[in-house]
Fold this sequence. Notes:
Blueprint: H1 15-43, E1 46-48, E2 52-55, H2 59-70, E3 76-78, H3 86-90, H4 122-135, E4 146-152, E5 157-162, E6 166-169, E7 171-174, E8 181-182, E9 196-199, E10 213-217, H5 221-232, E11 236-240, E12 247-249, E13 251-252, E14 255-256, H6 257-265, H7 270-285, H8 300-307, E15 312-314, H9 317-322, E16 327-329, E17 332-335, E18 339-342, E19 347-349, E20 352-355, E21 359-360, E22 394-396, H10 403-424
Parallel strand pairs: 1-6, 2-3, 2-7, 7-22, 9-20, 10-11, 10-20, 11-16, 12-15
Antiparallel strand pairs: 4-5, 5-6, 8-21, 13-14, 17-18, 18-19
Helix pairs in contact: 2-10, 6-7
Bound molecules: flavin-adenine dinucleotide.
Flavin-adenine dinucleotide is lined by residues 55-61, 78-81, 85-88, 92, 96, 98-100, 105, 145-146, 175-177, 179-180, 222, 362, 366, 398, 403-405, 407.
Protein name: indole-3-pyruvate monooxygenase
Pfam family, one: Pyr_redox_3
InterPro entries: Auxin_biosynth/cation_transpt, FAD/NAD-bd_sf
Amino acid sequence: MDCWRETEGKLVHDPLYIKAAAAAAAAAAVASVLSEKMTAMTKKHCISFPGPIIVGAGPSGLAVAACLKEKGIPSLIIERFNCIASLWQLKTYDRLHLHLPKQFCELPLMPFPSSFPTYPTKQQFLQYLQDYADHFCITPVFNEAVETAEFDTGLGLWRVRTTSAEYRCPWLIVATGENADAVMPHINGMGQFKGQILHTSAYKSGDAFSGKKVLVVGCGNSGMEVSLDLYNYNARPSVVVRDAVHVLPREILGSSTFGLSMWLLKWLPMRMVDQLLLLASRFMLGDTSRLGLERPQLGPLELKAKSGKTPVLDVGTLARIRSGDIKVCPGIKRLTRHGADFMDGSSEEFDAIILATGYKSNVPSWLKEKDFFSDKDGLPRKPFPNGWKGEKGLYTVGFTKKGILGASMDARRIADDIDKCWKSQGQEQ
Ligand SMILES: Cc1cc2nc3c(=O)[nH]c(=O)nc-3n(C[C@H](O)[C@H](O)[C@H](O)COP(=O)(O)OP(=O)(O)OC[C@H]3O[C@@H](n4cnc5c(N)ncnc54)[C@H](O)[C@@H]3O)c2cc1C
């Protein structure tokens, strides 16, 4: 850590010099780790890093790295895949746009280009993330999955073991996301079904399903949008709706429903905002229960706050359900060789099944610190806004159930917190 200390005499009192020196030192630290990594891979020795190690190069990991960089604190991101934002690059379908307007999805310190539409496409979002990484000179270590991370009390450091090296650092930031692994449900008879079964993380477009009867299991935002995509490619989709679900229009009176809700919440209690949202939805979308989409007892915002369940923002699927082009099916009793038996006693044949059954965190599989994260769901035990900071230099970013907006809030808090410690250790130069 001595290399971080002041050695340059009078110059260090010049603020411009301090910023430049900090940036150069941060870059040097990362470069030295990369070269040490090469040696470590052959000699298997461990690598010490003076700043925080961030696990995961998704939007959350990038956000916290940028906030740290702005304060002159070097950080190192370790990413299991060979790219940033692997969820968006490798596991999302082609027609995906941001579900929320861009102003609610930007990372700290750098807005979206004004030329981008309100709901950027997946490609535009990825371009923004790449520009963000370039702007802040963020160069993750790719192709290294973190296998274990634990605090070594003797050393007073975190030991982070990856597929090819061991790193030691004073701070560990978990940024592996709420969507690290696909949830693959067990459905009776799954082994018997002769057609293709795939998770939405492997679905790209309806192109491959043209003319086929496809059963989409799950009616969240992904399930609803994939059903519409299949319809647009001349497939014959059916969507399984097992539980009650809130479907809301994406926009109300020309404003995004999300933005309007945030604004109303400043003035009105949540239950009242929910009533207004439901009234507007009824007016714009009609009675969804007549289409087989019962609404939950709790309003959309209250349900999200209590259970994390996100309402579906309709992008046109409801109209296709109403016209009968997309069929709504009840829960599946069992899969058969050529289709499915449903809970209401009906049966139908299908060529393929797409599981829009969501994702889960993978933190319990590698983080040995058990107090902070729940083993049950892999999320911090303390709910938002208190879930970002653990003990002994452990932090988490992006586990708020509030999307990129929540991740950005975490990233700023973490950088401020580490900054205090960094400065008190006299390492800011
Ligand atoms: C289809 C879809 C659409 C969404 N749309 C929006 C939206 O419009 N607006 C919004 O705010 N939110 C949206 N979200 C929710 C959320 O904001 C995004 O999922 C976002 O990508 C979360 O960023 P993250 O960095 O926390 O997690 P991720 O993007 O999942 O990134 C985590 C990274 O960690 C890596 N990783 C995991 N485990 C390890 C390990 N052991 N070692 C090393 N690396 C590891 C992963 O490979 C990944 O690159 C959407 C989610 C999905 C699935």
